[in-house]
Amino acid sequence: MFSESSCNEGQEYASAERLTPSPGRVTLFESQGTRILIDCGLFQGFKRIRDRNRSPFPVPPRSIDAVLLTHAHLDHSGYIPALVRNGFSGAVYATPGTVELSTLLLPDSGHLQEEEARYADLRGYSVHHPPVPVY
User: Fold this and answer.
1) DSSP code string of 97-124
2) For 72, what's the count of Cα atoms within 13 Å in the CB-facing half-sphere?
3) Among 134, 135, 74, 66, which Cα is nearest to 102's?
4) What digits encode the pLDDT tens for the residues 33-66?
5) Which run of H or of E encompasses 39?
6) How many CB atoms lie under 10 A from the CB of residue 65?
């Protein structure tokens, strides 16, 4: 806890930066060399919005110390598997209920992405050859 006397006027102790616009929720909180993501969501909706899931992450995943997950909705949690695949190895903090729900949602989301990729390959409508899921 900071007391009034311990804070120098104008000195920055922490910063928060929204890394992505809605609907994929990702906010980076940085303080004294520690980087914490608050949520790490998938972009959902129209294809032009979903395509953002394939863009490079705004900061190197290896540079992130932890993820604080506010709840399990995919627009808040859905990018965590891709973050791990790309080098994140820190802790993920969440309530027990969020953890329990995420253990159902994330594998199911990955399965649906695999099914969608197979269907896109079968129908030949993907720009990716072969079509690949986000994770």
Assistant:
1) HHHHHHHHHHHHHHHHHHHHHHHHHHHT
2) 15
3) 74
4) 999 999 999 988 888 888 888 888 889 999 999 9
5) none
6) 14
